[in-house]
Amino acid sequence: MASVPLLGSHAADDGHQERRRRPSWLGRVVDTEEAWAQLRFSAPMILMNMFYYGIPLVSVMFSGHLGDVQLAGATLANSWVTVTGYAFVIGLSGGLETLCGQAYGAGLYIRLGLYLQSSLIVSAAASALISVLWAFTEPLLLLLRQDPRVSRAAAVFARAQIPGLFAFSSMQCLLRYLQMQSVVAPLVAFSAASFAFHLALACLLVGPLGLGLAGASAAVSASYWAACVALLAYVLRSGAFSETWKGFSAEAFRYVLPTVKLAAPSAVMVCLEYWAFELLVLVAGLLPNSTVSTSLIAMCTNTEAIAYMITYGFSAAVSTRVSNEIGAGNVAKAKNAVKVTLKLSLLLAISFVLLLAFGHNLWASLFSGSATIISEFGSIAPLVIISIVLDSAQGVLSGVSRGCGWQHLAALTNLVAFYFIGMPLAILFAFKLKLYAKGLWAGMICGLACQACSLLVITVRTKWSKIAEAMEQEKDNYGYGVA
């Protein structure tokens, strides 16, 4: 296995560098080789994310054909399990982006398998705790003053996904392990197959077998287990990972504490941002004409989430590139990767913004047939456009944080940006200044701006050479050099 990171291998070929043609006008704007490498990496990651995102969404859609209460219950449960469980374990796996990425770039290949196993242990323990919370979904939702019938339906939907939580958390660890080795194309195939399997299984369980809401949710668990087993089999059976996977080892327990030190703030970082947007929807329910306000904020949040799927690919790319290059001691290449990814993400964000600017009425009509809501969405669309641009920038900078191991700084930034600035301003604008839904989203924009600016300052002021020196020291301590 080559010691040079896969995404950076094109830059290591001196002969190829000599044959490079004079840069075009595009080459003067952005490093086209780096940009092309990142696009090839990002596109599969975006597709993979969409397929996995579609699995619970399909089950919610099937639940909608069972009745209004079932649809409300499935929707509530899907939000509940995401906020209390799935978002947290996704964040936990983020620690591997630092550990595996830097170890791979440094040529410490055996470490990747050990880090993976330690992360699997941590994720399993977290899943066990979360499953207890999910078991008490109904009383907890009733405590939050949700409708009793909807709470009962939500509890059925949530409990059936308890087995799937363990598979999902393990799957996220496997995905990060593969991602940090720049293995992305097979991930699209696995995610597409899992989505197709889920579609067929949900249809069978809800339709011919008549298992109703429990069947729709059980299909999610089964699909996650199928995806997890397929990924694990790929790692175990493929000869491509012979240097990074040496089998299960008790030595992995030695790496549990270092994994927790990065995984915990990574989980907090993800959850704080996700919870802020969910909290915004709840606050919208307290506004006058809450039906329209809640619908508007929900539409804005969903639009932001869909736009972020594109950013996710670039965030994964820059996290991989930065961690690999730091591990290899290539500080200049790591910095260049950050610049290129920021330019690409902003370019794509602007493209998305143009589509929304000219097609906001068509987009809103996909969510609602109400002329009032469509009209109101048109007036709030400029604010959504601003938030998408900011979210695109911070998404990439968050990827840089994971690649460098700054999860604790990013978590603190998110806490201050959203809960000390964004949310208080949102409440002030919405209730005191009577801007209502627009005020809520304007406050969130202030939080996003603070988050993006803070992460940018951290990135600009980073002593990249010191990070690389620390990695060199780690290699020396390990007892051998780059393979």
TrEMBL record:
GO terms for biological process: xenobiotic detoxification by transmembrane export across the plasma membrane. Keywords: Membrane, Transmembrane, Transmembrane helix. This is Protein DETOXIFICATION. The chain crosses the membrane at residues 50-67, 79-100, 112-136, 187-207, 213-235, 255-276, 296-319, 340-360, 366-390, 411-433, 439-458. The keyword Transmembrane helix applies. It comes from the Eukaryota. Coiled coil: none annotated. InterPro entries: MATE_euk, MATE_fam. It is found in: Membrane. One of its GO terms (molecular function) is xenobiotic transmembrane transporter activity. One of its GO terms (cellular component) is membrane. Its main location: membrane. Belongs to the multi antimicrobial extrusion (MATE) (TC 2.A.66.1) family. CDD domains: MATE_eukaryotic. It is a multi-pass membrane protein.
